[in-house]
Automatic annotation (TrEMBL):
The protein's name: Uncharacterized protein
Pfam families found in the cross-reference section: Aminotran_3
Record-linked NCBIfam families: PRK06105.1
Gene Ontology biological-process entries: biotin biosynthetic process; gamma-aminobutyric acid metabolic process
Species for this entry: Tagetes erecta
Length: 531
């Protein structure tokens, strides 16, 4: 007996084959058969196929997510059509395709529900430098949960872990003196806090018009209303009516992509600083409150600043009494080979945003570091302004703070900067050895962060057709070979755990090379189809 019904919650994933020249329309149905008293459910694609030679029409269905093998992966739990509205995920994906469900982590690896092992080359979301299953962090959380699982930090009441962590952070950040720490739950709400803090500061000084914030194209500062506005990525603005009017954007400092013929890095930096000053003068210096920047731009593609860039930009903002906000959410705590990105690029910020590696992602926590310049105004004007009426229920959560404190102890006791600087040359040199590939435009990075941008003929101006989805294809091949990376358009990004061994770095380089070979073959196939 064979019974065919439409399936709302299919139980396996079907992937399109590499190099397919078919345009395929799919719907899901369930085939139930009874054979030898055993029932088997098998999701199949009902295919209406039309062979075509044109790459423009021979596209892999956007609704099909590449799996880690070339065969269907059985998902006995039936996660397709799950109940989450997932972040940074197309709405159809949560209904029409199976998610990759990660079940456990060990060191530099994570495992999915099918038992497949992946090298986590992004450390979660740039945030898990100590890897999975660090017993000291688990113990710190457990101890605090058994002692004081929660108390708030409102109305001058707080907990000892939050006080201890604030003191520790002020001692660790040495690029510029900091006076106070405000705790948040993430980098996004920390950057929202930065804007409110800057406004509060200028109101205290009697400057009600000095409220605009300048950020940079391709930057990422979070996804809440204000932090998404600060971010310079179109996807965070489109369909959300963003950015807000008080946010302005200036040039992305990507030398390879945006420099003029014959322009040196220093010349490029000078031009960008001049453009920033012109923007300030156009808007009116009396209206510009702050400038925000990541030392190295992360989600925008791992974009390193050109030589002398921050020196020149800082001179401009200082000239017009504009606060400098350093977004250290990705760069902070060793990612670049220095404790903070500000140390590497000699940035002297007025305000600093931290999160992610603060707790190695074992607990959600972020923070704002406040310089004496800002903190003194809040103190001196408090009789006039009253309460600093901003905060979150979980600001300074004792369990998160206890885990963060233990994380910082581990960084210090294990000389984490020495570890990063020991393996980062292997990581950088090994991956940059692939730079001659005909599908790679640029490989860029420093410390344990790296980006690869795919272009044709090694030119920033010769992009692959967007429907080819070369970046996504490379990411899928990495997954097939057992490695997870970040894909953004035709760029991929990597920021592996600090705890990687030399053998794991070699494994990462090997998997990258295999995925690159697959991608080179795919590009050749697509080009041949155009002829």
């Amino acid at each position: 007996m064979i019974k065919i019904t439409r399936s709302k919650i299919p139980t396996c994933r079907i992937q399109s084959q590499p190099g397919s020249q078919h345009t395929v329309c799919c719907f899901s149905f369930t085939v139930t058969t009874k054979m030898n008293n055993h029932h088997h459910r098998l999701l199949r694609s009902a295919i209406a196929a039309k062979i075509c030679r044109s790459t423009r029409t021979a596209q892999t269905l956007s609704a099909v997510r590449w799996n880690s093998t070339n065969a269907a992966v059985v998902d006995d739990e039936g996660y397709k059509g799950h109940c989450m509205l997932a972040p940074f995920t197309a709405g159809w994906q949560t209904t029409d395709s199976n998610p990759l469900v990660i079940e456990k982590s060990e060191g530099s690896y994570v495992y999915d529900v099918n038992g497949k092992k992946y090298l986590d080359a992004l450390a979660g979301l740039w945030c898990n430098p100590l890897g999975g299953n660090e017993p000291r962090l688990v113990a710190a959380a457990t101890k605090q949960l058994n002692t004081l699982p929660f108390y708030h930090s409102f109305w001058n009441r707080t907990t000892k872990p939050s006080l201890d962590l604030a003191k520790e952070l002020l001692g660790m950040f040495t690029s510029n003196e900091m006076a106070k720490v405000f705790f948040t739950n993430s980098g996004s709400d920390a950057n929202d806090t930065q804007v409110k803090l800057v406004w509060y500061y200028n109101n205290a000084l009697g400057r009600p018009n000095k409220k605009k914030i300048i950020a940079r194209t391709k930057s990422y500062h979070g996804s809440t209303l204000v932090s998404a506005s600060l971010s310079g990525l179109p996807a965070l603005h489109q369909h959300f009516d963003l950015p807000t009017p008080f946010v302005l954007h200036t040039d992305c400092p990507h030398y390879w992509r945006y420099h003029l013929p014959g322009e040196t890095e220093e010349d490029f930096a000078t031009r960008l600083a001049t453009n920033l000053e012109n923007l300030i003068l156009k808007e009116g210096p009396e209206t510009i409150a702050a400038f925000i920047a990541e030392p190295v731009m992360g989600a925008g593609g791992v974009i390193l600043p050109p030589k002398t860039y921050f020196e020149k930009v800082q001179a401009v903002v200082k000239k017009y009494d504009i606060l400098f906000i350093a977004d250290e959410v990705i760069c902070g705590f060793g990612r670049l080979g220095t404790m903070f990105g500000c140390d590497k690029y000699n940035i002297k910020p007025d305000l600093v945003t931290i999160a992610k590696a603060l707790s190695s992602a074992y607990m959600p926590i972020g923070a704002v570091l406040v310089s004496p310049k800002v903190a003194d105004v809040i103190y001196s004007q408090s009789n006039k302004l009253g309460s600093f009426s901003h905060g979150f229920t979980y600001s300074g959560h004792p369990v998160a703070c206890a885990v963060a404190l233990e994380t910082l102890k581990i960084y210090q006791e294990r000389n984490i900067l020495d570890q990063v600087n020991r393996i980062s040359p292997m990581f950088q040199d090994g991956l940059k050895s692939f730079a001659s590939s005909p599908v790679i435009g640029e490989i860029r990075g420093t410390g344990l962060i790296l980006g690869t941008e795919f272009t044709d003929n090694k030119s920033p101006n010769e992009l692959f057709p967007p429907e080819w989805k070369i970046g996504a294809y490379f990411g899928a091949q990495c997954e097939k070979h057992g490695m997870l990376v970040r894909v953004a358009g035709d760029s991929i990004m990597m920021s592996p755990p600090f705890i990687m061994t030399s053998n794991e770095v070699d494994e990462l380089i090997s998997k990258y090379g295999k995925a690159l070979k697959d991608t080179e073959r795919k590009v050749e196939e697509l080009k041949c189809q155009l002829k």
